[in-house]
Amino acid sequence: MEINHFSSGVARQGRTIAIRIFPDLDVLETIEEVCRDYGIQYAQITTCIGSLRRISMNFVSTPIPKKDATSGSGYTSQMEMDGAFSVLSGQGLVSPAIEQGKLNTHLHFVISGQHDAVYGGHVEHGTRTLTTLDLFLTELHGMRIVRKKDPVTGAVVTSFSQDDE
Predict the structure, then answer these.
(1) In the Cβ-directed half-sphere of 72, how many Cα atoms lie within 13 Å?
(2) What pLDDT does 24 receive?
(3) So what's the pLDDT on residue 34?
(4) How far apart are alpha carbons 85 and 41 in whole angstroms?
(5) 13-61+73-141 CATH pick, 3.40.630.30, 3.30.1330.80, 1.10.340.30, 3.40.50.1580
(6) In the chain, what are the domain boundaries?
(7) What average pLDDT does the segment 74-100 reach?
(8) Backbone conformation region of residue 126, classed left if phi is above 0, alpha if psi is from -120 to 50, else beta
(9) To 5 degrees, how large is the angle CA 18–CA 99–CA 71?
(10) What is the pTM of this model?
């Protein structure tokens, strides 16, 4: 039996969409709305800068999974904060969600907040813009991106494979 230590695929880049998300909008909902409007199912988010008024994110907080984890893998903790935050960097992936007709945006941010505190992690729904969020999204063709629970770790992970277009 062959053991695989990674998943991979080769994609062709399609259109690049420049997006400005206006104040007080949910970041993930807006990205998914733009993708639906342009008919995009698979994409990479390559550039993301701007400001937030609310951040909701998960971050890795322990190398050993928590036994009482009610969601996620048990390796992460949830952080929600209101205030003024700068998005220093953001990147991610867009792919079809498990629910038919929906999209999954897997986005990570590095942000700075009050007193020069820096945070980073996996962005969740409920993260809202302050003044603007500017990003570039490039559609991908010829590759499947799937987010699902890994049977070994219990974490939701990304896998890549070729798509026979």
Answers:
(1) 17
(2) 98
(3) 98
(4) 29
(5) 3.30.1330.80
(6) 13-61+73-141
(7) 92
(8) left
(9) 95
(10) 0.88
- How far is Cα 102 from Cα 106, in angstroms, rounded to an integer? 13
Under DSSP, the state recorded for 22 is P
Q: Which residues is 85 bridged to in the sheet?
A: 52
Average pLDDT score over the chain: 90
Residue 125, CB-side half-sphere exposure with 13 Å CA sphere? 6
Which one, of 150, 148, 146, 149, lies nearest residue 160 by Cα?
146
Coil, helix or strand at residue 115? helix
Residue 93 Cα to chain centre, angstroms: 6
Structure tokens at 29: 């909902």
Asked if residue 38 lies in contact with residue 17, where contact means CB atoms within 8 angstroms, the answer is yes
CA gap 133, 55 in Å, rounded: 13
91/46 Cα distance (integer angstroms): 5
Do residues 146 and 159 touch, judged by C-beta distance below 8 A? yes
Q: What is the pLDDT of residues 67-84, one digit of tens each?
A: 655 555 567 889 999 999
Do the Cβ atoms of 147 and 156 come closer than 8 Å? yes
